Structures are given as C-alpha cells and as structure tokens.
Amino acid sequence: MAAQEIDNSTTWGKELWDQFDNIATHTQKGIDFIERFGGFIRDRSAIEVEYALKLRRLVKNYQPKKSKEDEENEFSSLIAFKNVLKEVADLAGQREVVAENLQNQVLQGILLLAKNLREERKKALNQGASLTQSLHTQIGTLDRAKRSYEKAFREAEKAIESYHKADADFHLSRADVEKQRVNMNIRNSQSEDAKSEYANQLQITNKQQQQHYQIALPEVFNRLQELDEKRTRGMKEFIKRSADVEYEVSPIIAHCLEGIVKAADSINEKDDSMIVIEKYQSGFQPPGDIPFEDLSKPDPDAANNSQTHNSSTGLNHMTGKGTTKDKLKKRVGIFGIFTGNKSRRILEACINVKNNLSTDGLKEDFSDLPPTQRRKKLTAKVQELQQKVAQEQAASDGLMKMKGVYEANSMLGDPRTVEEQLNESVNRLDRLRHELLRYQKLLEQANNQSFIQHSPQSNRVIQNGQRSSRHSNGSSNHENSHEDNGEDHPDDAGSLSRSASESSVQQAQNGLNINNNGSSASPESGLGTSHTSLPGSGQGSTNEQPMNEEFYEADTPLGTCRALYPFDATSEGSIPMSEGEELQVIEVDQGDGWTRVRRFSSKGWEEGFVPTSYIECTLYA
Which tens digits make up the pLDDT trace of 500-512? Predict the structure, then answer.
C-alpha cells in the first residue's frame, strides 16, 4: 500500500506541472529510442538470415561427391563429416527460425507500439497546447482588464483633484465647478466599472488557472507519463521476447551439437584402416628374393631367343640411342598408327567399346582387377543378381497367381492379358539366371585360383640388366656397342619401341598396303588373324610376301614373357593364354594396360594383345 501511495503521489502532473516542454522532448526521445531498438532487431534478423544462408552455402560447398564405390566403402570419418554437415544444416534452419520469430513477434510489435505511442503523444500534446493557449488567452484578458482599471482609476483621481481645485477657486463660476463635479462622478463611475471588470476577470483567470494546473494539465501529463511507461514496459517485454526466441530453439540447437559430438565419437580409426585394406588389397604376395645369375654358366633357356636375336642384329644393327642404323621397318602400317598420343586415345576408345565395359569402367568379368578385388566385385555382382532373380521370381509368381485366378473366374479378368506379361517375366528371369550362373562360375574360378607368389607390377622389367635374362652373342654385342659409344643409354625396351614407331611411320609413308580394302585396325579389330602379320594367310595384296619378309625383319622379339595365370580372349585383337605359357614380346605396354605378344602354334604364328598384369616380362638386354 505504501508503495502504491508513493506511486500515486509521484506523478508527472503533480511534480512536473511546469515542465511541459521538457516532458514533450522526453517522450519524443523515448519513442525515437524504441524505434532505434526496432532497427536493432531488424538488423539482427537480417544477420541471422545471412548467417543461415552462408551456413547452407558452406554445407553445399563441402558436401562430398557421391559415388557408388564410396557408398559401399565409406570411412567412418567421412560418414561423421556428412552427419556434421547435416547438423550444421539443421543449425542454419534454427537460425532462420530465430530470424523469422524476431521479425514476426518482436519487430512487428515494436513498430506497432511506436506508431500507437506517437499518435497518443500527438493527441496529448495537442490537448496540453490547447489548454495552455486557453489559459494564456484568459491571462491576456485579465491583463487588459487590469490596464483598463488602472487607466480609469488614474483618470478618476485626476477628476477628483480637478474638482477640488475648481471648488476651492473662487474665480470660477458655479457652472464650471458643477462641470468638474459631473466629470468627477463620471470618472469615478468608470473607475468602479473597470475595477469590477478587473475583479471579475481576475476571478475567472484564477479559477481557470487553478483548473489548468491542478486538473486539466496534470491529466495531460499523466497521460504522457502512462505513454512513456507503456513504452518502457514494451521495451522490457520485447527484450525478454527476443531472448525467449533464442530459448525456444536452444533445445534443438543443443540436440544438433549433441549430434555433432556423437558424429565425432563414431569415428573409428581402426575400422577406417580395415576399409582401406578391404578397398585396395590385391591378394598378391610380396616378391621373393632375386636369384643370383652365374654368368659363367650357359643359359639353355635363352638359346633359341639368342639365335633369333643374333639374326636380327646381324641384319639390323642397333645404335646406342635405340634407333636402327638401317632404318628398320618394325610394323606394317597398321601398327604404326597407334604410336601417337592422339591415335593412342582413339585406340583406347575402341578397346573400351569392344570390351563391353561396365558402367564403372571395369570389364564385365572384372578380369582387369587384382584377384582379391575381382573376387569382391564378383561376390557383389552375384548378390545383386540373386536379389534381382528373387524379385523377378516374386513378380512371376504373382502373375501366375493372377492368371490362375482369372482362369478360375473369368469375370475377374481375361487370362490372356496376363500371359504376355508372364512370358516377358519368364524371359527376363531366364536371362538373369543365366547371367547369375555365369558370374557364379567366374566367382568359383576366382576362388579356386591359387595365390601367385608376387604381384605382376612388382615383376615389371627392371632395366639396365637387373632382372633380365642372360642371352648369347647378340646381347654381348649390344653391351660392347654400348661400352664403345661411352654414352648414357635409355632402356632397350623403350629404344626398340621408338624404333618400331619410327619404322611404322616410315613404312606407312612408303605406301605399304594394310589389307585388301585399305582400312586401318585397332588392337581389338582382329590382329590375331591379321593378314599383314601372318605369313601364308592366302589373302592380301600382291605385295604380301615382301610385307611378310619385312614383318619378320622388323618384328624382332623385344623379349619373352610368361603367363602368370590364364587369360580367355573375350574380344577381338586379344589371344588366349594358359598359366605358365611362354610367349614372345613384340611390343611393350604403351600405357593402355596391353602388351602385344606372339607365339608359334600348329596353325602357325599367332599374334595379339594380352593384359600386362597377367604376364611377367623379361626383355632382352
């Protein structure tokens, strides 16, 4: 009660009765301040929106690219990072909620309050100004009545003085004295009237002034006080509301942060290491020790190769730079076109089209993958086909049931409408089962295949004689020629390959025929049966015999190779080979994963391409 009495006694109308101008200025500043607070909320909301937008852009920019392989073998750190991005996106959404609530619940309320306050203040000030003006008008009337009274009083006193002088003056006539007496009476009457008017106006003014300062103007000031207190309460409520907006989303934000911590806890470095092993394990074993080669003992395995090599070196002596002294013609036009980078890309495109690559760039039988990765891919393919077979079988069974229902009750439908769909489903099921059986056989072969002792990549030919076989006189002659020249020589395989490329181009420029219709070929277009490379084929142009002679002069074996595991020639241009089979290397791998080889069989010389990773090469020194 005491506090209430203090509040009622301390009002602007009582305490600030004479501070109209200051009250007007204060209320104006208060409204300007709350409008400024509204600008603060508006700018903060804009910052929240911009922050949310930048968070979403950040999530979009750092979103990992999706790939089928990554989905199968996702690292825990990558999964955790994706979850972090999701939580950050949720945080962005909460910032947008904050911005929206600030605009709808706080900013709009501030603008509406400021508008109402401004209107109420204007009305109160207009009323206060009207009351003040009315009081000032009454005070002006009182001042005029007072001046009139003062003037009439002075004139009355002067008339009285004039009458007394005239009455005392014996020289004046009685008529003049009477005149002064009448004038005195008139002036006194006017003075009394002015006095009465002044008293009346003074009474009216005092009453109005009392009414003004005790009732009318305090009411205006109290209204302005209520207006200012309303503004202050609104400021208080809006500040609390802005905090409540944050409180409302804080549980969700806390949940997002918990999700980020949970994502971090889900990272397991050991599991990621196992995924790396699962992803890149080839199944090969490390290479064994390199055997010591005693040069004092003859090498019977290289006798035949030495004879061939010596005959070729007798006809075409190789220089130290790897080029032929007599301009060897290694290929017959058709092979020389694949030595350039542009032609090599065309060759690779042809190989990809001919080999029926899968959607991920691998062969359908995954024969170009290491054993472990191949078994993994085949297992996944078998599981995928099993799932498709189960789905197709379920669909076929459903159609069979529908057909049986239609046959039992023709009112439900015509069985012939289902028969065509059933036939298509059966055909698809047969194709899927055939494909499943094929991949099951491939998987069985891959599982039955024994581990080789070392990786083909680790057995790639080490140049400068470290892993190459010993050979007879031809090798000695090359070594002597190298020593005589006293130059640094690149590997012989690269030199022979460059010589072959130069010879191919030379041969193509000399107008040699490729085949009867003059079309070029790629490694996938039947090189195993090419008439330009097989003698006695019975086809080709009239220059076939000279071309075959040049072929044997130019296609000097670069070395030998041994098949590490069997290879089935599933495309044109490639030849099959069995595990452990020895072949002659005609052209080393040019970077496309294929090596050109030749062998002699009952049908004569056969030539074609085999995967480089399936063979172990030994090039001549």
Answer: 334 333 433 343 3
Share of the chain above pLDDT 70, in %: 70
- Dihedral of alpha carbons 162, 164, 166, 168, sign: negative
Angle at 607 between CA 596 and CA 602, to 5 degrees: 145
DSSP assignment, residue 525? S
Work out whether strand 582-587 and strand 559-563 pair parallel, antiparallel, or are unpaired.
Answer: antiparallel
In angstroms, the Cα distances linking 472 to 35, 166, 422 are: 102, 177, 70
Nearest CA to 425 among 386, 398, 385, 387? Answer: 398
Tell me how far apart the 2 most distant CA atoms of the chain are, in Å: 188
Please determine, for residue 315, whether its predicted confidence score (pLDDT) is greater than 80. Answer: no
Rounded Cα gap, residues 619 and 612, in angstroms: 14
**Integer Cα distance of 279 and 275 in angstroms:** 6
Q: Where are the alpha helices (DSSP H) in 449-522?
A: 473-485, 492-509
Residues 142, 205 contacting (CB under 8 angstroms): yes
Determine the Cα–Cα distance for residues 426 and 397; give it in Å rounded to an integer. Answer: 10
Nearest to 227 by CA among 337, 328, 336, 113: 113
Tell me the angle at which helices 20-61 and 217-265 cross, rounded to the nearest 10 degrees: 20
Structure tokens belonging to residue 285: 């074993």
Q: What CA–CA distance (Å, rounded) separates 531 from 604?
A: 12
The Cα 408–Cα 421 span in angstroms is: 19
Residues 211 and 369: their CA atoms lie apart, in Å, by 106
The string of pLDDT tens digits covering residues 358-379 is 555 567 777 777 777 778 888 8
Cα 528 to Cα 604: distance, rounded to the nearest angstrom: 11
Quote the CA–CA distance of 200 and 142 in Å, as a whole number: 9
Q: pLDDT for 118-150, tens place per residue?
A: 999 999 999 999 988 998 999 999 999 999 999
Phi, psi of 10 (to 5 degrees): -95, 80
Residue 595 tokens, joined: 């090596």
Angle between helices 217-265 and 108-168 (to 10 degrees): 160
Q: What is the pLDDT of residues 237-271, one digit of tens each?
A: 999 999 999 999 999 999 999 999 999 999 999 98
**Phi first, then psi: what are they for 541, rounded to 5°?**
-85, 180
Measured at the alpha carbon of residue 313, what is the angle toward residues 311 and 317, in degrees to the nearest 5? 150
CA distance 362 to 360: 6
| pTM for the full predicted model | 0.52
Phi then psi dihedrals of residue 559, to 5 deg:
165, -165
Task: Name the residue among 141, 144, 41 with its Cα closest to residue 99.
Answer: 41
- How would DSSP label each residue in 289-344? PPPP--TTS--GGGHHHHHHHHHHHHHSPBPTTS-BTT----S-STTGGGSSHHHH
Quickly count: other Cβ atoms within 10 Å of residue 210's Cβ: 11
Scanning 62-107, the segments in alpha helix (DSSP H) are 68-72, 76-101
